[in-house]
Design brief:
472 residues, Rossmann fold, Glutamyl-tRNA Synthetase, domain 3, 4 domains, three-stranded parallel beta sheet, three-stranded antiparallel beta sheet, 19 helices, disordered N terminus
Length: 472
């Protein structure tokens, strides 16, 4: 058996997380790949919450998933579907497969199954359970609890025609008659996934390669129901920089952590798209380009490695080209997510005015806000340790001399550059030597925009007042 699907069908993809914890960065990439593939082809991107594990699924985790996808900018079509809410439909399909002869009732108890496996292990043969009820005459069925098992083929092989992994073959003798409906009438994950994907019209199942074995078993359900099999694309998992499976020891693994650390969503989208997928040599690209370029053939088979330096570099490029108003809104959302104080009206206004000179070379929002201290802080600006070193007696003397000369200077970049060059030249120093003390006076920091940008943003009166504070 092989998995095939009609290439002419409208594209429908889905992201189907389990709400048992945070949204993993690997899950976010899976969602992004599905979103890009669908959006680039005018198709649908659906969201299904696989909440059948009632003990571990929580409303809080579901809310975190929705919030994370929204922050990442991945919109889905229609309402998010609850898998648990569809349990009656799943059970209906199991009973239909029973009627078709593609499944059977199994009355074996847990003790009998355990005894079978123990005997098989002792005799060094396969421990895959072979139910004695597979071909039993229904007339012999007892009045007892039963599960419904898939009647899987015992010989031959199941082939998954995977667009990333190539053809992957599973010997049917390695696949058991899995349980589809438990004795209490609840469906198993394997059945629920197939029924939901079929009913939702999913044409392409793009997910982690840890689901590859699941695909072999799920294909048999598709065939048992006579349903068309979707196109499968099993993508390699994300590893840490050391090549080992990504875990907390490598740093942030939950998507929400990246927002709290101050990475822009556009940068995360770009980086995650590039993590395991490529389009020529393109590293930095826009959402529109990603939607246009993304295809399954560009996904590699080897696990991708998380690289924070590359992530920061891309994020810096996205901050630099971002729309000022959009960037302002995202910064304020970052402050809220990180539990930091919001901006006052005056700070908001100052940040808007200064944004043009803050965006370059800031790789994260904390870096940008540090550069923005000159408009977010207020007089008197107390210099930090590094900045204070540049405010020695000689520097203070030069600033004292500069202050009255700025009273009537032309308040343009050219005018300010000329005036500062004149004062620096009179003391036999370069502009660079004057910039350090000026930064300390205007911002109390060493990492700032250019002194000319700061003076233009805060204006003449505020500049003179800060110089006066620093030279007292």
């Amino acid at each position: 058996m092989s998995s095939t699907s009609s290439p002419s069908a409208p594209v429908v993809t889905r992201f189907a997380p389990s709400p048992t914890g945070y949204l993993h960065i690997g899950g976010a990439r899976t969602a992004l790949f599905n979103w890009l593939f669908a959006r680039g082809r005018g198709g649908k991107f659906l969201l299904r919450i696989e909440d059948t594990d009632r003990e571990r699924s929580t409303p809080e985790a579901t809310a975190a998933i929705l919030k994370g996808l929204t922050w990442l900018g991945l919109d889905w079509d229609g309402e998010a579907v609850s898998q648990f809410a569809r349990k009656d439909r799943h059970a209906e399909v199991a009973r239909e497969m029973l009627a078709r002869g593609a499944a059977y009732k199994c009355f074996s108890t847990q003790d009998e199954i355990a005894a079978f496996r123990a005997a098989a292990e002792a005799e060094k043969r396969s421990t895959l359970f072979q139910s004695p009820w597979r071909d039993a005459d229904p007339a012999t069925h007892p009045d007892a609890p039963f599960v419904i098992r898939l009647k899987a083929p015992r010989t031959g092989s199941t082939v998954i025609a995977d667009t990333v992994q190539g053809d992957v073959t599973f010997g049917n003798d390695q696949l058991d008659d899995m349980v589809m409906l438990r004795s209490d009438g609840t469906p198993t994950y394997m059945l629920a996934v197939v029924v939901d994907d079929h009913d939702m019209g999913v044409t392409h199942v793009i997910r982690g390669d840890d689901h590859l074995t699941n695909a072999a078993r799920q294909v048999q359900i598709y065939h048992g129901m006579g349903w068309e099999v979707p196109v499968f694309a099993h993508i390699p998992l994300i590893h840490g920089p050391d090549g080992k499976k990504l875990s907390k020891r490598h740093g942030a693994v939950g998507l929400e952590e990246y927002q709290v650390m101050g990475y822009p969503a556009a940068g995360i989208r770009n980086y995650l798209a590039r993590l395991g997928w490529s389009h020529g040599d393109a590293e930095f690209f826009t959402d529109a380009e990603a939607r246009e370029w993304f295809d399954l053939s560009g996904i590699g088979r080897a696990p991708a490695r998380l690289d924070f330096k590359k992530l920061e570099n891309l994020c810096g490029q996205h901050i630099a080209v971002a729309d000022d108003a959009a960037l302002q809104a995202e910064i304020e959302a970052y402050l809220e997510a990180a539990g930091l104080p919001g901006l006052s009206e005056a700070q908001h206004t100052g940040l808007v005015r200064a944004m043009y000179c803050l965006k370059e070379r800031a790789k994260t929002f904390p870096e940008l806000l540090e550069k923005a201290h000159f408009v977010l802080g207020s007089r008197p600006f107390e210099p930090d340790v590094a900045a204070a070193k540049s405010l020695d007696s000689v520097s203070r003397g030069i600033l004292t001399e500069l202050t009255p000369q700025l009273q009537n200077a032309s308040w343009t970049r050219e005018g300010l550059e000329a005036k500062l060059a004149e004062v620096a030249g009179a003391h036999g120093i370069g502009l660079g030597k004057l910039a350090g003390p000026l930064r300390a006076a205007l911002a109390g920091r060493t990492v700032t925009p250019s002194v000319f940008d700061m003076m233009l943003v805060i204006g003449r009166d505020e500049t003179l007042a800060r110089l006066s504070d620093a030279t007292r």
